[in-house]
Design brief:
By secondary structure, this protein is of the alpha+beta class. The protein has one domain: Roll (2,3-Dihydroxybiphenyl 1,2-Dioxygenase, domain 1). The chain is built from 18 helices and 13 strands. The strands form five sheets. The chain has a five-stranded mixed β-sheet. The protein has a two-stranded antiparallel sheet with strand order 6-9. A hairpin with a 4-residue loop joins strand 7 and strand 8. The protein is globular and about 80 Å long. 43% of the residues are buried.
Amino acid sequence: MGNWMRSDEIRAQFSKMMSDMYQKEVPLYGDLIELVNDVNHTTLSQNTELKDQLQQTGELSRLSQERHGAIRLGTAEELYNMRRIFAVMGMYPVGYYDLVSAGVPVHSTAFRAIDADALNYSPFRVFTSLLRLELIENQELRQLAEDVLASRQIFTENALALTEKYEQQGGLNTTEAAQFVSEVLETFRWHTQAPISKALYQALHDEHRLIADIVAFKGPHINHLTPRTLDIDLVQSGMSDRGITPKAIVEGPPRRQCPILLRQTSFKALQEQVKFTDQQGSHTARFGEIEQRGVALTPKGRQLYDQLLDKARQHLGSMPNESNAEEYINILETVFHDFPDTYLELAAQDLAYFYYFPQMKIKVTQERPWNEQDLIELVQTGKVLIEPIVYEDFLPVSAAGIFQSNLGGDGQTTYVSMSNQARFEESLGSKVLDEIQLYAQIQQHSIKQCLEQLNTNSTVGV
């Protein structure tokens, strides 16, 4: 075996270089980073319980480097090679997201690390979408889009060569890894020149703004990077204070004592100059986003979350926007009173996933070994401490909401075709991992270790 650089280190290097590049391309993103850092510092100084929680779960050290990005791909071949490239960085496809039902003609997955230690070392994720060209009803326009996509190569020759070398030899050395990161970064870079005419861009734009964003450029420029905050409501108000225009609604669940899943907001996308093959024009796509992550929910918890979110939106009677933002927030908070808001209740009702830490310091005598059925009682009596397993993934509704709000306009396209995970996985060249199973495995491993330590530190008597 060669002296290979760890995939976690390659991922960390790539994440940092990506962030540096994006700050240069979108200076407002740098302002956003400063705001998030200020809010996180204030929150940690005022909430020692939260600081202790993050320390216990290993998340505190990763907070300042936490990022997720998003890219949009045009062909099955692009997705297939992107999977190979992310594998070099220890990132694997987790979850299948159908955004077609929300009027966005893509389906997606999230490339990320899957091991808890790897996530804490570098929690970089990339939400990766594949365009569904078959949804373009205009056959002539669909063929033109296919021709444009077929003629482009979004990866450098060296990026693909180093990926193949990694696959053949089982790793990359320090020099090769540095070259790999530099070459792959080119795929995500913004290009001011578009390889199509202004008229074709406009036709694609009129079909759907996101189709134009994918087809009209040399590659899948990173369209946003997302730092993690500990108080997204402070960031939302802080953007306005710093002259940054936020979107109207924080996507996801309402503010809670015990955050669940994911909340996210963003500043509106920038209008940028683009040189088409025949004339100058502009394009709106890239924006800055912020996320606040909570505890991962079990299938039972996800079902309750979906029910309450649907109830809130039905009560509102329309899509949340600038005109009804305050009303929607009030409805959401009222409806979510039915979702338990203590970690003990979330664990007791099997609504969320947790780490379990033994707290006993002295030997005790008990009638039998403790087992999983005793866990809640052990937590209630202070023998076991629970801490939330952070949700590492995305919300389909949130993703679609962010897309729609930043692509401009309040209208929503309706598509007849629905989700097609099998076709997506065929393009990907592998199955997507089930995020629920990953969280369940992490919790089960934690429970096993906890019970082993408790029972080792006890005496079974009569």
